[in-house]
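hey so u asked for the seq, here:
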Amino acid sequence: MLSNSDIVELTQFRCHLHEKPELSGEEYETAKMVTEFMQNTVPDEVLTDLGETGVALVYNGAEPGPTVMVRAELDALPIEELTEVAHKSQIAGKGHLCGHDGHMVMVCAVGRMMAKQRPAKGRVVLLFQPAEETGQGARAVRDDARFAQIKPDVALSLHNLPGLPLGHVAIAEGPANCASRGIRIELTGKTAHASMPETGVSPMQAVAALMPGLTELGSGGKLVPGYRLVTVTHAEMGEAVFGVTPGHAVVLGTLRCLQDADMATLCEEAEALISEVAKRDGLQVKLSYHDVFHACTNAADPTAVLKRAVEQRNVPLIEDAGPMRWSEDFGLFGYGAQSAMFLLGSGTDQPQLHNPDYDFPDDLIPVGAGIFEAAIREILG
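ran it, structure tokens below
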């Protein structure tokens, strides 16, 4: 269990992390701060620069057994923080406005508990992962050759959730977060004088067709198997002048599915539509995908373990919250491990994630850490 002094020190560290946010792939100082803060927990193994900036701390049990990994995220967002808290971001245009500072500290708290009492068997890996916001961090960690040294049998994580009552937990077996990816469509024709548009090849009609056409491929609806949503997020065409008929355009969109299996089909349909429209209008087309997130699916066994941990810690449990539309690259760790993520309520009157006035509620630190510890003790003793 955490002592009062533990909670004070963890809260102070959370505020320190909040003051010094770093963006995805740039979390060098954040990783260093975490590593230094955790030195007094005396981990049996420390891996740094994992997936470029990640950190993994290993706590061995007395006997052989499975590996349980608990993951937190290192990165912040490219958003200017608009709060008046004493620990407000000191870095212009950057802020911990998703609660990753709180997630890190809850996992740090687990390390303190492991220092006081190692697991009876197996080992605990605390992973501080880079670049979650771009969907690149989990893959970078898994692609690192040293990941084989800490490959988990069970992977656990959480995310705080505004709108859910403070300190309440939502978790259910099955889909937890959607798969998503950004698609970038570049259309190239031929620029012409605005007085002679017939001498050029404009992408105007193609852009006008693609925006509703892509949207019709996935109109959303209930989050049930087969759910698909396509959101056009940006479009630009030509130059901001009056004398030129455009010869170039870019359209950005986000493809979203509840399950990974549906994403390939949605991509094929989007690519077929884009190809058809480009060919019709005599345009060259270049496609690329970005911010690729796999779906998060909660496996039965770790979900049941987490539910029992919630009950053991006397935390209110909500079982019918359903999956979330947003994506989380934790889903990739579900390939090769039994994985589960729970949602921890950050308050019904809390600003939403990614809002410039969001700040993680420190009262959640012992709650989330306690649930993780109870789950670890059940699996490893």
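DSSP finds eight helices and 16 strands in the chain. Residues 260-280 form the longest helix (21 residues).
lmk if thats what u needed
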